[in-house]
Amino acid sequence: MTTATHPYDALMDITARPKAVFVRGAGSYLWDDSRKRYLDFVQGWAVNCLGHSPPAIADALTAQAKRLLNPSPAFYNAPSLNLAKALVDHSAFDQVFFTNSGAEANEGAIKLARKYGSLHKGGAFEIISFEGGFHGRTLATMSASGKRAFEPLFEPKVAGFKKAKLNDIASVERLINANTVAVMLEPIQGESGVWPATDQFLQQLRALTDARGLLLIFDEIQTGMGRTGKLFHYEHTGIAPDIMTLGKGIGGGVPLAALLATERASCFEHGDQGGTFNGNPIMCAAGLAVMEAVSQPDFLKAVTETGLLLESELQKVSARHGLGGVRGRGLLLALDLKLPIAPGIVAQAFEAGVLLNAPQVDTLRFMPALNVTRAEIAEMVDCLDGILTKAGAARRVA
Questions:
Q1: Which of 16, 23, 50, 292 is the most buried (most CB within 10 A)?
Q2: Which residues are N(2)-acetyl-L-ornithine-binding (predicted)?
Q3: Is the entire prediction scored with pTM above 0.85?
Q4: Residue 103, annotated as binding a ligand
């Protein structure tokens, strides 16, 4: 544990944090100011897709910082143009708007859908989202989210969001009316415990929205940029949405996100959307470095293989300790503990030098760097297995 004195009270107390202060990171590891090393299977909630302080991003940031930081979004800059072109070339979309956070990208998607409704659907403005979904912490994105803890907060919420049930197409159909303009969802609900939409359900949503003249919006803040073994999750399904949002991994650790749309859905007019720091060259330079790495077929193949290994190892842990199933895809996975013991496991793992995440009291979520090694997976699994064994948290069955 850190022995240094730090001004903890100067920061708003908005979440429980351990007293350790991290000072350095490299790949899958972090070090605190007492020189203790931690194996990180959280990676900033799937942000550091290439691990901590990867040379490619550090070099891109350093080089760009010496050239140009921010000329103002009133002017073009080369990194934003080049990153937008790379995203378009590798996706089903035609235009890109850069933002600073995933919530801001999702806010933009909501605004774009409402603009589309005002122009093409007689003022339709309602968006169907899903129970358990999480889209951010602005008022509109909290309203779009289906997180129960948000329900009593910051009332009144932004109107116009109806909640369907994931993987239940009939629940979506029942909510469609003349005011409906779009359906919005995460392909895998991360915050609620890594609950995937099935490929069949996503295909049904595409068919339904096409038939009813609605926009389909994928929030790929957590699933995009190679996290599930494809550059974008929608590629697993054989369909494409009209609007997609990216965040977290696209910056590899710096604040960068994006709103992508097809030509049909791109209906913002001058003055409708903007942002002081949006598309600034230093963040887009980092995004270009990430894009160069994760878009390589060999890299994505390795993510798939490593994800299957991690899934297999977690299934073995579950079998040994009588736990539940493993959910997710690629390197976004969850282990169902069947008992409300996740926070205790996270705390014990932290003391042992391993960082894990508990999105729910009965669930562990695993979001390692996309280039995590087999040895690092084995190290994490050994730690988790040891905690479960020592604590007797669940019975051994093998």
A1: 50
A2: 137
A3: yes
A4: yes
